[in-house]
């Protein structure tokens, strides 16, 4: 039972529901000794045990979304523990009138929780109300819980936002050289952090930031709404994030991160660079069951920018993205890159509905990036009214400075697309490799996309090597080998280097 220090604090009963539904629960395994009986059939029993544990691990992999091939693609996670103590923000002087600045109240609350780490940490309940605040930091072993009707409002005066050094894997601020603004809710070198609630809201009030950015009135890169750096064991769930000044949720060089049941919103136009979720040099991450409609990429997996990302050398890997509905009128539903210089690998993107978007799924890179994008699986995607469905672009030439190596060519290989369906798509596929950056080992299987354009080149390829298995629609480009459903070769590609890229459609 949680010790609640105030009668107004929210009860902890929500944990029983949310943790019971968590897909990473560990199952109890009976002791092997309990299976043994004192008989002469020891060998038979041992064989039965071996079979039992083999099936158990296969089933556990299937439940967690992992591959059933002798290894777990996405490791299971231990669940956060109940906090022994809960506080209410009003205990620290918080006033939820939308006018009073609550930064000091948040800071005092976090300080109190920071002293409880050895006892299991603490929970900060944010009750219904509008809680205006400048940026503040989280601490380890902390739960930030937003009640229904609770809104944390970011102050829209940039003078309250602290300046921070550029990210080490970027070298520069993403929009300006030099320092960058910090995030509204921030954390570094943390462990065991939970941000959750009864669908409370964190609102960055980004309108003034967007306007100043368009008018070129800002001298530093805008800050994210929520940024967690160099941390592990993070859970963010059951809240709404909206109107971020810049990228909305930015986990940076983190491990063991679960993001689920989020609603992320920003205007689809005139809200520049308001990406939804940007995993950046992260490892062992699950993003699931979210709705995202924003002014840039709904999700963009990153790992550093040109020579700075190569030197930092932290890939994004072991990432599972599933069960999302996303929209991006000016960019893409799910992107990888363009900042991917530390490498991106072992990513599964499945059960995604992309609607009224410029692009559906995209990989973007350029000469000078270095790094790699490999072992990427797209499965069960639905395109609903998008301009271009599948995009791989190798000339996305944005660079932090002139110090990058123009001969640092990224490697793109091992990319598969299975069960791709949709309607009202202008160009279903545009894969634009180059002589320096060919796209290798691409696979298409089970694809049927209704198109809005009757021109010939609507499945576009350049410098692509790979295969099509079975019948797909529209007809694939000539760069790809054709196989029947049984895996028998039907036709070799006529030229993997030929190009029919047509940007007029």
From TrEMBL:
Gene3D superfamilies: Single-stranded right-handed beta-helix, Pectin lyase-like. It holds the Pfam family Glyco_hydro_28. GO terms for molecular function: lyase activity; polygalacturonase activity. One of its GO terms (biological process) is carbohydrate metabolic process. InterPro entries: GH28_Enzymes (IPR051801), Glyco_hydro_28 (IPR000743), PbH1 (IPR006626), Pectin_lyas_fold (IPR012334), Pectin_lyase_fold/virulence (IPR011050). The chain crosses the membrane at residues 35-58. The keyword Transmembrane helix applies. Keywords: Glycosidase, Hydrolase, Membrane, Transmembrane, Transmembrane helix. Belongs to the glycosyl hydrolase 28 family. This is Pectin lyase-like superfamily protein. It comes from Perilla frutescens var. hirtella.
């Amino acid at each position: 039972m949680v010790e609640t220090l105030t009668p107004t604090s929210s009860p902890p009963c929500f944990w029983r529901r949310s943790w019971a539904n968590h897909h990473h629960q560990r199952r109890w395994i009976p002791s092997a000794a309990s299976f043994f009986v004192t008989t002469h059939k020891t060998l038979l029993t041992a064989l039965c045990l071996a079979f039992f544990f083999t099936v158990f691990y296969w089933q556990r992999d299937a439940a967690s979304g992992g591959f059933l091939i002798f290894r777990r693609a996405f490791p299971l996670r231990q669940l956060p523990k109940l906090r022994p103590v809960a506080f209410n923000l009003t205990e620290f002087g918080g006033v939820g009138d939308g006018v009073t600045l609550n930064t000091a109240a948040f800071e005092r609350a976090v300080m109190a929780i920071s002293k409880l780490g050895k006892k299991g940490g603490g929970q900060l309940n944010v009750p219904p109300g509008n809680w205006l605040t400048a940026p503040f930091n989280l601490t380890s072993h902390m739960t930030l819980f937003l009640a229904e009707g609770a809104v944390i409002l970011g102050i829209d005066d940039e003078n309250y936002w602290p300046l921070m050094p550029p990210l080490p894997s970027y070298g520069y601020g993403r929009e300006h050289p030099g320092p960058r603004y910090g995030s509204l809710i921030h954390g570094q070198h943390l462990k065991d952090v939970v941000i959750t609630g009864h669908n409370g809201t964190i609102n960055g009030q980004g309108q003034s930031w967007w306007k100043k950015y368009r008018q070129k009135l800002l001298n530093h890169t805008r800050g994210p709404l929520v940024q967690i750096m160099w941390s592990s064991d993070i859970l963010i769930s059951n809240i709404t994030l909206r109107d971020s000044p810049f990228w909305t949720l930015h986990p940076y060089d983190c491990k063991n991160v679960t993001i689920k049941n989020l609603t992320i919103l920003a205007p689809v136009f005139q809200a520049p660079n308001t990406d939804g979720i940007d995993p950046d040099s992260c490892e062992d991450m699950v993003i699931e069951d979210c709705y995202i409609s924003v002014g840039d990429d709904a999700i963009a997996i990153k790992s550093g920018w040109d020579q700075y990302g190569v030197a930092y050398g932290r890939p994004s890997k072991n990432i599972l993205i599933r069960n999302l509905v996303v929209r991006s009128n000016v960019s893409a539903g799910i992107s990888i890159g363009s900042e991917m210089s530390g490498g991106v690998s072992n990513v599964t993107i499945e059960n995604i509905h992309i609607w009224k978007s410029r692009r559906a799924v995209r990989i973007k890179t350029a000469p000078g990036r270095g790094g790699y994008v490999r072992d990427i699986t797209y499965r069960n995607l639905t395109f609903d009214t998008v301009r271009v469905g599948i995009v791989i672009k190798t000339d996305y030439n944005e660079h932090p400075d002139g110090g990058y190596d123009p001969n640092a060519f990224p490697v793109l290989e091992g990319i598969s697309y299975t069960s791709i369906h949709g309607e009202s798509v202008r160009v279903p596929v545009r894969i634009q490799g180059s002589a320096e950056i060919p796209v290798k080992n691409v696979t298409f299987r089970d694809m049927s996309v209704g198109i809005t354009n009757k021109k010939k080149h609507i499945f576009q390829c350049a410098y692509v090597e790979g295969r099509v298995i079975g019948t797909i629609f529209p007809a694939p480009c000539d760069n790809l080998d054709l196989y029947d459903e049984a895996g028998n070769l039907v036709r070799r590609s006529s030229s993997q280097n030929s190009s029919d890229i047509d940007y007029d459609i």
